[in-house]
Amino acid sequence: MSIVIRDVREHELDSVLALNNAAGPAILPLDAARLRRFYTDADYFRVAERDGTLAGFLVGFSSTANHDSDNFRWFREHYPDFFYIDRIVVASRRRGGGVGRAFYADVQSHAELRYPQLACEVFLDDGNDPALLFHGSFGFREVGQHVMATTGDAPGHRAAMLLKDLCSYPWVHDTYGGHLPDVPWIAAPRAHRASAHRATGT
C-alpha cells in the first residue's frame, strides 16, 4: 500500500505521543503538554499513514521559531537561516519500509523553497551507524558535535549535528524572493491546518 504524508490532526495527538514514547533511546520522550506546544508552534508537523494507520510522524521548526530545544539553539548559534528537524519517529513495524525516506522527501520539498539548509541531529551515545548512514545517503554531513544539558541525574546526550545544503534554494530565492506562487502544493503545512481550523470553526 502507498504511504500518505499529511498534516497531523488534533485528535491524533494521543497516538503520536504513544509512538514517540515507544521509539526507544534514540528519541527523547515527550509529555502531552510539550506535544501540544509542537502542535501549536511547529512549522511542520505531519504524519505518515499506511494501511489506514499511523506509521510515523515528523516535526520541524524554522530557524526563527520560539523553540527551546538544546540542539536547536546550537544550530541557531552557528547558522543564520535553516530548517530544523526536531524529531522523526517511525513505528517499529514500519521501519525499513520507506516511511523515513518519504518523510525526508516531503520535508525537503517544504524546506528547500524557504531555507538554504536543512538541520538535524543523531544521538551517538549507544552508537547509531544506521541513522548516520541513512542521513548520509540524503546528503547530510556532520558539522559538529554537541552534548546536551544534563537533566536530573541523567547525563546529557552526545549528538552529531548534521546539515544539508539545499541546492534549489538559491534559484528559488533569486527568482521569487519571499513571494512564492499561491498554489496548493507550495502552501506550508501549518497553512493547511489553519485553513482546516477556520473551515470547521475549531
TrEMBL record:
MF-aspect GO terms: acyltransferase activity
Annotated PROSITE patterns: GNAT (PS51186)
Ranges for domain N-acetyltransferase: 3-167
Keyword list, A-Z: Acyltransferase, Transferase
Classification via InterPro entries: Acyl_CoA_acyltransferase, GNAT_dom, UCP028520
UniProt keyword annotation of DNA-binding present: no
Keyword Acyltransferase: yes
EC code(s) of this entry: 2.3.1.-
Protein name: GNAT family N-acetyltransferase
Organism this protein belongs to: Cognatiluteimonas sedimenti
Record lineage: Bacteria, Pseudomonadati, Pseudomonadota, Gammaproteobacteria, Lysobacterales
